[in-house]
Amino acid sequence: MITLAVDCMGGDHGPPVTLAACRKFLDRHADARLLLVGLPDSLRAFAHERAAVVPATEVVTMDDPIEVALRKKKDSSMRVAIQQVKDGAAAAAVSAGNTGALMAIARYLLKTLEGIDRPAIATQLPNAKGAATTVLDLGANVDCTAEHLLQFAVMGSALVSVLQGGEPTVGLLNIGEEAIKGSDTIKKAGELLRSAANSGDLRFQGNVEGNDIFKGTVDIVVCDGFVGNVALKASEGVAAMIVDGLKQEFARNIFTKLAAIVAYPVLRALMKRMDYRRYNGAALLGLRGLVFKSHGSADALAFEQALNRAYDAARNKLLDRVRAQIAHAAPLLLPVEPLESGAAAMTRS
Amino acid sequence: MITLAVDCMGGDHGPPVTLAACRKFLDRHADARLLLVGLPDSLRAFAHERAAVVPATEVVTMDDPIEVALRKKKDSSMRVAIQQVKDGAAAAAVSAGNTGALMAIARYLLKTLEGIDRPAIATQLPNAKGAATTVLDLGANVDCTAEHLLQFAVMGSALVSVLQGGEPTVGLLNIGEEAIKGSDTIKKAGELLRSAANSGDLRFQGNVEGNDIFKGTVDIVVCDGFVGNVALKASEGVAAMIVDGLKQEFARNIFTKLAAIVAYPVLRALMKRMDYRRYNGAALLGLRGLVFKSHGSADALAFEQALNRAYDAARNKLLDRVRAQIAHAAPLLLPVEPLESGAAAMTRS
């Protein structure tokens, strides 16, 4: 039996969406149990033999500053859900709430794994091969050292091998010939990744560029959280612009509207392939417990996908795998020289 | 009369494309003259009363390392074209060659403007408002200080006000709520930009995210070259994936192929709106002379657009405008505290 703790209050829609997803999820997974965390009044209507309500008196909003979520709302549904993981009552927690707050609370309660300085957020993006590219970090860390990027590569490899099988390939996000190729951090990260590949810890394929994420050149793309976040949002922006442009062009006049009717099934097939909901469920990696983040705007289908990913990760013992891969790569993860200024504040746990 | 120096050998296609574009350009601009720079044998066939061949004996290839382009090929078409600008024989130079080499040679020959530490590459991307967003830097600088980002904002504002008129708005590329909002550099850049806005030097609108580039939230988006390059390439990657996906879905069977015929005019209209060729012609800003960079893969239509942009910039005295705006913002551009390690190597010219 796999037990997940669900922050039912999180996200833009709260219980109407999260509970609908929970019901479908339970119907499809006979060996799953859910701990529904939230305000009891909001969850009263839900009844299922494999679900139990865990009460929480507060809710972290999308606008709450991290400090408020962490220090003031100590009985939030988000925090209580993660506490279930810490206490061993659940194998993973899922929330569609405020990402910054989720990461801060998860880190505070669960702590980072040995050998990991900073947790990372890993998500999947569709690629031209009809598969998904896993990208990390996506916003947890704005300044990363070469060591951090290596840690992200090791954790990302564990995630993808557990969820998709095989030995996934890794690329380091860099820029092309337009400049000196990358900063000192990126160059050093490249060296560390090559060493890891030589010791059999990773399948490092070298540098990749922004477009390689969507070409599917490698299974995993590693970058710092600032760059990853910008790349993700820029990509979403282009996709939205193209979809809006299609709608506008097809709505232009009676002829284009007729064309839209004819083309609709084809466009629908394309949209389905690129549907971000299929890729919902980002992993917070590097913690002593499994936490998955859903898009705040997720509908029931998308939120269910986040539950599925948490379930797969728990069932396939992602945490053990990450721990083992980190341990194996440990000699490389030790700092080879004193860390520079920006890294001085970090603590190894 | 506006004279442009054209590196006719640059780009993936060389003279067949560049010369075809030059001919069209001359036909459309009765007050323009071109200096066609390249191997005389390759340019012999071209004859026009407002064009003259300037011979060069070497060609910088797309693969040439910067040092080779800069130190070994001293008679390259790229370098000779920029030399025309330095000598005052041309008002601007245009090349579709290797970006890194072009920036290095331009910087070496022309030097940076007073008050500018580093030149930047500014390009336009289509946005949902049917206009263009100017983004800089796109790869000239991998590590930027807050001061550099302010300089980019000032130069970008001058570029857009000269080419499009009005007082353009500026946004600072940052990440959303997913983490502590931005690095120290970004926070400090935000402060500098706000000061500049208060002194009337800029119309700074605050932080923007990756998707705002394509929403058209602001006229100009400022970022470091690493982030800008990744955002640009990720965006190109998504667009390519969607276009390929459309082609695949429409080619699936006889019904979808018929739908494609019906939908073709609509899709064509959309492609035209998003056609990168309309936005070809990136400006190298911050130099004591105008240099424009065309996509290496540009066809004649795209290369002509780069020529048009160089022509507009020269005719509207972009260099004077940049110089004036830099001078006006000079008090802000002076370092307010000693520059950190990474910036120590920079020289003010």
UniProtKB/TrEMBL annotation, chains A, B:
Pathways involved: Lipid metabolism; phospholipid metabolism
Keywords: Acyltransferase, Cytoplasm, Lipid biosynthesis, Lipid metabolism, Phospholipid biosynthesis, Phospholipid metabolism, Transferase
InterPro entries: FA_synthesis, Phospholipid_synth_PlsX-like
Record field: catalytic activity: a fatty acyl-[ACP] + phosphate = an acyl phosphate + holo-[ACP]
Chief localisation class: cytoplasm
Cited PANTHER family: FATTY ACID/PHOSPHOLIPID SYNTHESIS PROTEIN PLSX (PTHR30100), PHOSPHATE ACYLTRANSFERASE (PTHR30100:SF1)
Role played: Catalyzes the reversible formation of acyl-phosphate (acyl-PO(4)) from acyl-[acyl-carrier-protein] (acyl-ACP). This enzyme utilizes acyl-ACP as fatty acyl donor, but not acyl-CoA.
UniProt name for this protein: Phosphate acyltransferase
Species, as recorded: Extensimonas vulgaris
Highest classification ranks of the organism: Bacteria, Pseudomonadati, Pseudomonadota, Betaproteobacteria, Burkholderiales
Gene: plsX
